[in-house]
From TrEMBL:
Pfam families: Transferase. This is Uncharacterized protein. One of its GO terms (biological process) is intracellular protein transport. One of its GO terms (molecular function) is acyltransferase activity, transferring groups other than amino-acyl groups.
Length: 497
């Protein structure tokens, strides 16, 4: 039988007995991860003492300026190694209750997360067809959905928390308040035309707004997720491979980007403006929302045309991989520039990059937290509206993606982004890899999935198609007078390709 023992001696002043010594002993038998003996042998007081002494040691050594960040990383590492069961739903034992509070009360983000703090949240609507009467849904289905949500939050506890920016913290944090924090779920009813709202034709954005949950942020606090079910399942269990990975200490900040991003936020309407209020990006009043599709055959035809034009100009086949994402993004970008009749000058396309597999070292695909950065592609509008416009756009996007091999995490130039004319800035929201049409609560695939937050961001969205045959859906927001031109350009371009 092998034991590990550590003694910590503290010298303190007692009001009743002068100076005295207190010895804290941390003892544990040598056992493997996830052993039930970890739970039974856990000592919260010993843990707190060990953590405090280590923090003091690090502060005295060379981390006095940043001991809080070190403490954050060390705590998450401790939890994932010593008590790995903590992150696997073993919250019920009283022995772990204090540590749960210790770890989750203040959860820091990484520097990539800071980048998106004040951007408008992503809003999506899932349209499902069911045969349940309203009373049956409320009495039978709704309790199951709420129970399933409760089970899911045991694995994704962070979603029940709030974003806050304490006066004594140099950056915003995710704060957990036991007994107070939860995910807001609103139940509503509507007499709107379900089939009109879930169609692929252009609809006024304002028709959809009342199907969205309220997302109330303030200078001091913002929720991480809100839900709404609007009326016109089975419980789910996470498999071991889907269990979320939370250790943020694996994400290294290569160039002190976090401090740059935090300072940028503090200087907005600052100085030292610790506000979490979401930027109020007001959309035009006459904006319309529409959905278009590119089938697998469409994408392959465009790809062949691009390769032919590329060979004619470069006298060789493209040496880089041309993906469905690149083809679709380029095609939609060109159609939008033409429909908006943008005059000579630079236009820009922003897209998000999943950094998980691109970091050194790579982090698991089950990492739960923001690990996304943003990249911009610049091109002259005259080149995009020309005969080889789609090929030009594909080349620009491919070169940007190839450049990620030299480092996916590059400092975002906020000053450049803010100086760009919004009419010349296009961006992409969502990803086909989310497989939104695989979302199933027991009623089959959704009839339609709509990303509605595009009305404020001006982005176009990409997702998988409902039929699952390899095509892509594109969500578009345009002013009313631009919709006819875009529809015509989108259709005629497919005839050419």
């Amino acid at each position: 039988m092998y034991y590990r023992e550590i003694w910590f001696t503290n010298l303190g002043l007692h009001i009743w007995a002068g100076f005295g010594k207190r010895v804290t002993t941390a003892a544990r038998r040598w056992v493997g991860n996830n052993s039930p003996e970890i739970t039974s042998g856990f000592d919260q007081e010993a843990t707190a003492s060990v953590v405090a002494r280590l923090a003091i040691h690090e502060a005295e050594r060379d981390l006095a300026h940043d001991v809080i960040r070190w403490l954050d990383k060390m705590l998450k590492s401790f939890a994932s190694k010593f008590g790995s069961g903590i992150f696997s739903g073993l919250w019920s034992p009283e022995k772990f209750f204090g540590l749960r509070e210790f770890l989750w009360k203040y959860l820091p983000g990484n520097f990539l997360w800071v980048l998106w703090v004040r951007f408008p949240p992503v809003l999506r609507i899932f349209f499902f067809e069911t045969s349940h009467a309203t009373t049956t849904f409320l009495d039978t289905v709704l309790p199951k959905l709420k129970h399933s949500l409760s089970l899911t939050l045991q694995h994704y506890l962070v979603l029940a928390e709030n974003l806050t920016w304490p006066p004594d913290s140099y950056k915003s944090i995710i704060q957990y308040v036991e007994g107070d924090d939860a995910v807001s779920l609103t139940i509503a009813q509507s007499g709107a035309d379900f089939y009109h709202l879930s169609s692929y034709s252009f609809r006024e954005v304002k028709e959809i707004h009342h199907f969205l949950p309220q997302f109330l942020s303030s200078d001091t606090q913002a929720p991480l997720m809100t839900l709404q079910i609007t009326l016109r399942g089975e419980d789910s269990i996470l498999t071991p491979g889907e269990t979320p990975f939370h250790d943020r200490s694996l994400i290294k900040d290569p160039g002190d980007h976090e401090r740059t991003y935090v300072n940028f936020l503090l200087d907005l309407n600052g100085p030292n403006n610790k506000s979490l209020l979401i930027w109020d990006l007001k959309p035009p009043t006459d904006i319309m929302l529409g959905t278009f599709q590119l089938t697998r055959a469409n994408i392959e035809n465009i790809k062949k045309r691009v390769k032919t034009q590329w060979q004619e100009k470069q006298k060789q086949e493209p040496a880089i991989h041309v993906s469905s994402f690149t083809i679709t993004s380029a095609y939609v970008w060109v159609c939008l520039v033409k429909a908006k009749q943008i005059s000579t000058g630079k236009v820009h396309l922003g897209f998000s990059v999943d950094c998980r597999a691109r970091l050194e070292p790579p982090i698991p695909s089950t990492y739960f937290g923001n690990c996304v950065t943003s990249h911009l592609v610049d091109e002259d509008s005259n080149d995009l509206i020309g005969e080889d416009g789609v090929t030009t756009a594909v080349k620009a996007i491919c070169e940007a993606i190839e450049g990620l091999k030299d480092g996916a995490v590059k400092k975002v130039q906020f000053s450049k982004m803010l100086s760009i004319d919004r009419n010349r800035l296009f961006s992409i929201g969502g990803s086909p890899r989310f497989e939104l049409y695989n979302t199933d609560f027991g009623w089959g695939r959704p009839r339609k999935v709509e990303m509605t937050s595009m009305d404020k961001s001006g982005a176009f969205s990409l997702s998988d198609c409902r039929d699952g045959n390899g095509g892509l859906e594109i969500g578009i927001v345009l002013k009313k007078h631009e919709t006819e031109a875009f529809t015509s350009l989108f259709a005629s371009g497919l005839e050419v390709h």
